């Protein structure tokens, strides 16, 4: 039975890394003593080791050990044997490129579908959707595909940002970008604001946190989704 | 001899489409009676016809005819025979995908290198750099490559945006994104603010407009470049 947290962001403004999620994670990873961390998204180009150390420090406060997937000779086995998995944020293109390069897309999909508890934040959440076509990140590397893990049957837009009505900047708003996506792709896109997450338990998918989320469906007006709404039929 | 305008944006806040560039374009396209327009970037998912109509309307005010490349049976011949070429903004992934799909990367490169006057705005400017890895656009389609036309030996970041110091949003700033690019790629990136453009004449590349541009080089601190600076040695 799937057991997944798909969080918009790791960090809230004025908060520390993973702070707002920690009480939740204590329960989510209740039966887990060592978290397998996937540091591939490398925020700011940080090394796998440094990124893993940062995560290790936080998880130690809830008495979890952390091991980076890059510390294993065989990443596929690391995933198959993992008690719990966390994929951190950073650049989604870099992350997806490494997932393909290390040939672990399928094993990650299988492990999580079979019930290994998973946490994704930001880029690590983007990959829970059908494709990474709705990432906000800059395409700094060219991955072999945009197909991702499909733990939910729609796309995620993390760090969803409402249009700034006072802006004089002429670049596209997030909403415009997602509408453009729908000129070329059919699947719904859920814009998750910072502080929101999806809780996937078996077939149930629920919006959590205090905020509404913005749902974009092809040929429909966007709508606001309330916390605790069941999204299992969204596809 | 190359004769190119690489503009950050087609439209300034409170301005109309191409308005601020028109006096310049009258001279740039002085010997051109019909502009070949490449509408592939489809801003907002607009059709090729509608986009071309919008451009036609503006160019008619300086007595130029406009023909969309999609109106030709053979796009390669359209480029080879063009008197002047304009590639408009929209989504860079959609644009580059169509350039490859229609197999016109090489003919576009050849025509412009041989002297056909070219104008790019936004996505149409992104493709003048070595690669499209520094676009701001959402990756709504998967192009066969990120390699672009390389009319300049660096990358362009159009609509360059300074960090908003009052923002509480945790998504990356533009500067952070470009620094991440340099963790994986060597070439310089020029952040062109809205209202700036590059004027390429033969081997000369000069920043034009009233604003400075922000230059990012791997392992260097970013620097501000003044208007009229010669950038031909930047690579």
UniProtKB/TrEMBL annotation, chains A, B:
What's the Enzyme Commission number for this chain? 3.4.13.21
Q: Which UniProt keywords apply?
A: Dipeptidase, Hydrolase, Protease, Serine protease
Is this entry keyworded Disulfide bond?
A: no
Q: Which domain of life is it from?
A: Bacteria
Q: Listed GO molecular functions?
A: dipeptidase activity
Under InterPro entries, the record lists:
Class_I_gatase-like, Peptidase_S51
Q: Does the keyword Hydrolase apply?
A: yes
The enzyme class is: hydrolase
Which Gene3D superfamilies does the UniProt entry name for this protein?
A: 3.40.50.880
Family, as annotated: Belongs to the peptidase S51 family.
Q: What is this protein called?
A: Dipeptidase PepE
Give the organism the record lists. Flavobacterium jejuense
Q: Which gene encodes it?
A: pepE
